[in-house]
Amino acid sequence: MKAPESTPEQIIYLVDDDEALRDSLVWLLESQGFKVAAFPSAEDFLRRWRPEFNGCLLLDVRMPGMSGLELHERLRAQYCTLPVIFITGHGDVPMAVAALKKGAVDFIEKPFNDNDLLHLVSQCLAKERESRDRRRQDAEVSRRLDQLTQREREVLDLIIVGKLNKQIADVLGISIKTVEVHRARVMEKMGAQSLAELVQSVMAIEGVASRS
């Protein structure tokens, strides 16, 4: 099974205190073209973690010192966006299931099939790429929104709730022609090719804001 094409900065961060398993997983993943960074403890990874890390996190549930679950909680508190796959022993499955409810992507139980692990990792990397692209697009929409004048933003807000040009003119006390000029400027500044695209991009941003 070949690794999907990935952006250069995507790395699989492997955290496991079992040196033999760690070495085996590094060999397996690198043999399929993935980039891997391995850590012997949760503390070691946490010291080196940076918000700009991209890729996914392959994390053992049970380790001396800080457990994988504790590391996951710490990373969530720091708004880490890396998708997490937990590596579990049989007795750790209930804990892994609890972690899924807190945002982990999946878990895999030892001893696991290599292809199952590679499939999960591929899914995680694809998920992380999509999430990063979405955040980049949202940031661009926010930047463009900030460039609108107050009047343009008022016109945009009324467009989003479905008001027609005549209704917008009545609400704002301006002429329909002026509304048309503002509307054209909004479309241009937002880089929208259609009304549907304009509304969807802004609604996506407002949806993110309401959830945060």
TrEMBL record:
GO terms for molecular function: DNA binding. Residues 141-206 form the HTH luxR-type domain. CDD domains: LuxR_C_like, REC_FixJ. Pfam families: GerE, Response_reg. SMART domains: HTH_LUXR, REC. InterPro entries: CheY-like_superfamily, Sig_transdc_resp-reg_C-effctor, Sig_transdc_resp-reg_receiver, Tscrpt_reg_LuxR_C, WH-like_DNA-bd_sf. The modification 4-aspartylphosphate is found at residue 60. The keyword Nuclease does not apply. It comes from the Bacteria. Gene3D superfamilies: 3.40.50.2300, Winged helix-like DNA-binding domain superfamily/Winged helix DNA-binding domain (1.10.10.10). PANTHER family: DNA-BINDING TRANSCRIPTIONAL ACTIVATOR DEVR_DOSR. This is DNA-binding response regulator. It comes from Zoogloea oryzae.
